[in-house]
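Re: folding output
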Amino acid sequence: MKKDLRHFILFPDQSRTLEVGREKRFLCSVLLGDDAYQISGVVHGIAPLSSGEVYVVFGQWLARRSALGWAFWDASKLGLGERNPIDVAVSPDESWLCVISAKTLIGSRDGGNSWQKIPVPINRLEWVRLFSAGKMAIIGMDGAYFSNNYGETWQPIPVSNVRDVCMAPDVPNYLFVKDIYGNTHCLIAAQQPDDQNAPLEQTVFTLSKKPALGIFCGNDALYLLDKEGIVKYDLMDISFAPRRVLSSRTIMWAGWCQEERFVVKKRGGIFSYSAQDNNRRWSKMLSAEPHWFSVCAVRKQGAFYAGTYSGYLLETHDQGREWVITSLKSLVGCN
């Protein structure tokens, strides 16, 4: 049965509908519905750019939204074989893009116009992360690897059961690694920018005695999400002294915008929070069940994106006052 987006949206009095060709967007402020958790055309990855373009992987497709509209590529025609894409990432300077399937990694340095297959030492990929100056990491069922040179050579990350990695753009010599147990390790990625083959040093130290639910980086800081909120590690301070910048026991996901403003997924919906606000007040952006969303992404300039299990992309550029919801499935004729 073909689902209608209206089953999913509650239309407030001031909401509007935009139609551009085959694309229909609903602008509104509240979401409802039972459709949101249907496993069909799952959005697995979102990579937003500062220009407003966004790359999305869902179902068997890689999609790109630009000023000219939406473009779609079948994964099998990009060199991913018969496997569906499961993650997409863009480098901090937005000069290159990578997409993975369970078996294959491909990269593009011309905005997706051409793709090159990048050999990997992992049998089953799960995530890809891109950093500055050709640095990247891949995580899979049988290990995690780091590269200093756009994937030309790989070296194993000397941590077992890796679940995530991150690197701050302004402090590119530290690689932060979270394992499945919530331990966060700090490794030295390279002593010199031109030392492309320098091996990763063993764990320099382990951060925090409390298990991390997630890690993410700002320009010059590491943020650690634990069961009590968000802790900041200032990477310009040689002591890496931690400071709690947000307290909450219900956060399930968090991302950094700028000036210590965060977007979080927690009970009750999507919220924004500014650590520099004297009142330290939460701003509710969206009322929704957190488990509706398969993946979330935030752009440094403040735009927030979320994908659902049923092929919808949600985005806001004004802290949740207005949302744009796009049915990716309908754009490619999926039912």
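--- second protein (sequence, then structure) ---
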Amino acid sequence: MDNNLLSSIKIKVLSQLNKIELNNNEIIIYNHIINNINFNNYKSVSTNKLSDVIAHIISEKILSSRHKIYSNESFIPNSKKNNINKNSDIKEMDNHTRLKSVIGNVAENTSSKYISSFIQTDNKNSDLNEDVNVDIDTNINSLFNNISLNKLCYKYNPSSLYIHQYVVLDSNYRDVSQDKSNTVSKFVWNYSANNNIVNGSFFSNIELTNIVGINLYQPIIPYLASMDTDAKRVSILIEELSAQSFISSNGRHSHFILRPSYTTATTSVELNTEDNYDHTLWFNEPFIKLDKMTITFGNPDTVLSFTVGAFDRFIIEMEFILLKQ
């Protein structure tokens, strides 16, 4: 076919396809398809009508692919796409963004080995006959690994799945059965579903399950001279959550390492949380359930022991960030 005639047909096809408002990704796919057409298969079609026929076939394939993409609510990218805002609501994603999230990165690479993964062609004819099938769904598994919509939200808009629970640990209501004869190094509280707090317990409105983060509010704890080391820090550990924690050079685990603010002639010391990046410790994997809390303090590498009955009452306030079921 004459090159001038071929160019003329391509321009007419693209002009007609503009009626369905192709985005950049669809134009790239269009270019790949039309550049691989075997025009000999259309000898029976008059030259004047050829552009109409080809435009009609391409538009049907693209519109069909759009419909399949828009109706699929379960896909998820394997990595973040620049066009998806981390704080946006996935359910309100517009159709153009949905389409780009599926074919965007692939379509931006114009090599045929990427484009062909989205354009399934008949083995005998790699042109636009009726056997050609532009099928995005066949690639959903390879692109999105069958990850659920909840996991999609957790990856791109995690705060939409968070529940915040607030807990108070009062030393006067700890489980004293864990105390030794005259010293205490582990302060223990058990979960209570009843807000009428009894000895040995702490309360929250719901059970602490699927824990993804902890926020510690600035606590005041009993002062010990052994806290005042050259490190000038006090560490706090929740033993039940030690699987995801900081580990010092001597093996001491901790979740928070805070700067004490010493005041002369006082029996308590305030632990400053301002050194923390955002005051919140985030976990890589959610903790399934927390029905007991055992708190230890360190200086920061060595666990501190307090004399029973000789230290001030203290209160620790925590915010637990839970993942919705």
